[in-house]
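**User:** My hope is that you can spare some time for a protein that puzzles me. I have put the entry right below:
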Amino acid sequence: MTDTASFPGTAHRRAPLDAAQILHLKLEGLALAVIGLWLFADTGASWWLFATLILVPDLSALGYLAGPRRGAVFYNLAHVFTLPALTIGVGWVSGTSLVVAVGAIWWCHVAIDRAVGYGLKAKDGFDRTHLSL
């Protein structure tokens, strides 16, 4: 069944998430944040580095200055687990703990966003996310 009443003029192929599904995704984000914190702590990097860089991925919201579609692309690229996972992998393979630490901080940012209910942005507005569709 499709539910398009919430989004006039758009065709959605799935119903919005229910409360239990959203809770599951938030708990998953919390678990992933704990893993990221453990990984960061294991690098031995300074917690000042963590505090300094934890909000850097939110600078991607500046992409919205170019419009909602481009903004969503920039924001979503900075808020998926793929790029921080690749950063962690590069740091691990190269033996560079600072790169692992930066990737772990980025990972934590994404995970904490999910845990508090922020999701990937829809292309038609900043307020619509994959957790609220």
Observations:
- Residues 26 and 115 are 4 Å apart (CA to CA).
